[in-house]
Amino acid sequence: MRLAGKKIVLGLTGGIACYKVAELTRGLTKAGASVQVVMTPSAMQFITPVTMQALSGNTVYTDQWDARIHNNMPHIDLTRDADAIVIAPCSTDFIAKLAHGACDDLLSTLCMARPHHVPLLIAPAMNVEMWLNPATQRNVAQVKADGIQVLGPAAGEQACGEVGMGRMLEADQLLTEIIASFQAKTLTGKSVLITAGPTFEPIDPVRGLTNLSSGKMGYAIAQAAWEAGADVTLISGPTALDTPYGVRRITIQTAQQMHDSVMAELAARHQSVFVAVAAVADWRVANASPQKIKKTSDNDTPQLQFAQNPDILASVAALTNAPFCVGFAAESENLLEYGTAKRAKKNVPLLVGNIGHHTFGKDENELILFDAKGHTTLPRADKQTLAHRLIQEISRRLSK
Ligand code: CTP
Questions:
Q1: What's the pLDDT score for residue 257?
Q2: Model confidence over 27-44: pLDDT tens digits?
Q3: Which residue's alpha carbon is nearest to atom 4 within ligand 1?
Q4: What is the DSSP string of 216-259?
Q5: 93 and 70 within one domain
Q6: Domain of 371?
Q7: Whose CA is nearest to atom 20 of ligand 1?
Q8: Does the Cβ of 312 fall within 6 Å of ligand 1?
Q9: Cβ proximity of 40 and 89 under 8 Å
């Protein structure tokens, strides 16, 4: 319920992307927001107020002169208790209106009359040539300069059959952007590098050694860091998860590849924070076979030999100019004792401890933070909530 208690005024203008906004409305209400839909006459060519009323659970307003509002001023009353106004889809014409301060329907008048503390977010949706038109680009630059947040657009196939910039973001992406707009931007201007997921160490071309890490915690931390305004790179072992929105992901397989990828990222650009969430294999198979190992007789077993993998976190922490390093400790017992010892061994300012079999693959967890002063507990919660708390803890320590 990331939007619990928030009121969103959701404005629809004319565009085929109106169909995506039905899904967005469901997402917003599921996240706990109350949604007040306002539609322009053009939007009603694409989707009906009946659909939007049913999905939002609230009366839909379409007319500046709607007498159902007690003082007959919907352009004022609808935004006075709003936490944000979101225009999706936002047409070429509506961007032009916003850029020039036009007020010729309820939605444009309502945007002009919004209290200055209510943020306005727009999700452009239009044909590629309309987007690239210098007039549109001038208007987009103007609305950005006026403090309006522009979400997208994305590039891709368009309803008209042409291909290029102008596709509206998908409903889940818009929902993430809206949730992020309410987060404190404690990591703006900072780069955060995160490892996540399991590693996979080949035995032969069809077999390998891995572990039960799902990647969920690392991916949630990557999303939370992006929401806090950071530029986020996620180096991930094989997982079934989608790349978090706004995050750059590099997929690797082995611990050695993860190590090399982390070092390459650190060499390529300054990173303020390194969070090692990955469950990295301590050993690789030294005598991995280039061909599939065949079973030659009934009691035959392959003789695997192991070599130790590099310790990525310890290597990063040992660098001169190391980023602020955060380690994880997945233990099966004695968490307080092992966590304290592991923080000292890895020489990191912050170590996050958890019980491995209580977290791997699960949606909830409980974390213990170890630092120079001792330890504190982040109580049991879903991994998204814990990720946000952890990012707050990291931001607080960075700003000291
Ligand atoms: N880690 C790492 N590279 C490795 C092993 C671990 O970067 N080769 C990181 C993990 O991402 C985590 C921390 O080190 O942040 C601790 O990982 P963990 O597996 O709990 O500890 P180990 O150092 O492997 O110690 P042990 O397995 O003996 O408990």
A1: 98
A2: 999 999 999 999 999 999
A3: 311
A4: HHHHHHHHHHHHTT-EEEEEE-S-SPPPPTT-EEEE--SHHHHH
A5: yes
A6: 191-398
A7: 329
A8: yes
A9: no
Q: What share of the chain is helix, strand, coil (3-state, %, to 5)?
A: 35, 25, 40
pLDDT of 107 reads 98
For the entire predicted model, the pTM comes to 0.93
| pLDDT score recorded for residue 299 | 76
- Decide if 111 is inside a domain: yes
Burial label for 86, CB within 10 Å (0-12, 13-18, 19+), is buried
Q: Are 58 and 35 in contact (CB under 8 A)?
A: yes
Give distance in angstroms: CA of 216 to centre of ligand 1: 17
Task: List pLDDT tens digits, range 289-339.
Answer: 999 999 887 778 899 999 999 999 999 999 999 999 999 998 888 999 999
Could you say which of 90, 103, 111, 160 is catalytic?
Answer: 160
Same domain, 232 and 376: yes
160 in active site: yes
Are 382 and 363 contacting, i.e. CB atoms less than 8 angstroms apart? yes
**Alpha-carbon distances, residue 310 vs 82, 200, 258, 260, 283 (angstroms):** 52, 14, 10, 10, 9
Q: Is ligand 1 within 6 A of the CB of residue 258?
A: no
309 Cα–ligand 1 center, Å: 10
Q: Which residues of the chain have pLDDT under 70?
A: none
